[in-house]
Specification:
Layout (H helix, E strand, L loop, with lengths): L23 H5 L9 H6 L6 H21 L9 H14 L3 E2 L12 E4 L2 E3 L13 E10 L2 E10 L5 H19 L8 H11 L5 E2 L5 E3 L6 E5 L5 H5 L7 E4 L2 E3 L5 E3 L7 E3 L5 E3 L2 E5 L4 E3 L13
Antiparallel strand pairs: 1-4, 2-4, 3-12, 4-5, 6-10, 7-8, 9-14, 10-13, 11-12, 14-15
Helix pairs in contact: 5-6
Length: 302
Amino acid sequence: MNNTLSRNDPCWCGSDLKYKKCHMKEDLNKTSSTDVSPKASKNNHLCLSSNDQGKMRDACAFNSQLMDYLRDKIDVGVSTNEIDTLVHKYTLDHNHIPACLGYHGFPKTLCTSVNEVICHGIPDDYILKDGDIVNIDLTTVVDGWFGDQSEMFLIGNVSEKAKTLCEVAYESMMKGIEAIRPGEPMANVGIAIEAVAKPLGYGVVRDYQGHGIGRKFHQEPSVPHFKTAESMAFIVEPGMCFTVEPMINEGTHLTVLDRKDGWTVRTKDSLLSAQWEHTLLINNNGAEILTKCKGNPSIFSN
């Protein structure tokens, strides 16, 4: 099925029958995520078959396992390059592929975004110090399918304002996920996120957003973390797979892209930023979180 095609619309095949009386059952029972109706294929809003949903669960389960592996290894005195090396080795040792490495020229295995860096921070010789906050963004290809998530790590004794920002960013993500309902607009995600962050004076980043995911790293649908006309028009359907990954800034929502490396995105006012991300599979009741970890994020232990 496609977000623009409802049960009572004319079928995409041109039969003049209603979709529910024609190809809807067949489309829902496709055995491959790439075997969808021409209308769905054209718009690239893919709904995964049961078999492909299982493959996404496997990819995300490994990605979560990798995050848990890092949990006690990220601390004061560790460089972001060392984290990159750990992730690279662990991924290859399990016969999987680091998705970020070489993606559009990205030079490392993961993204490490420290303090005022919003996203896409490149691991280097920077050594984490007491009071830092760092976003660890992992993506792995498992048997051709992408698992994607990110988490904030609190390094040593962080300030109350830094911890609060990370907590609000987490709550924003979870409220956005809880707001997802099949048959309702994607805009519910952004509305819920802004309802948490904006009253507290935080900026919700607009230049970067969530995305569809499956056999491709980034695909439709786009998932803005604020309300837009497009997200109001886009209807969520069972079988869709996408990320929710709000970036919440201590100050302005405005961003600055590093001109030297072409990747690192910072807050325009140099204040702190925090981000969390989960990969989700939409079912008949809402969103299933595919990237749940066994370990607890540091915001719950510090």
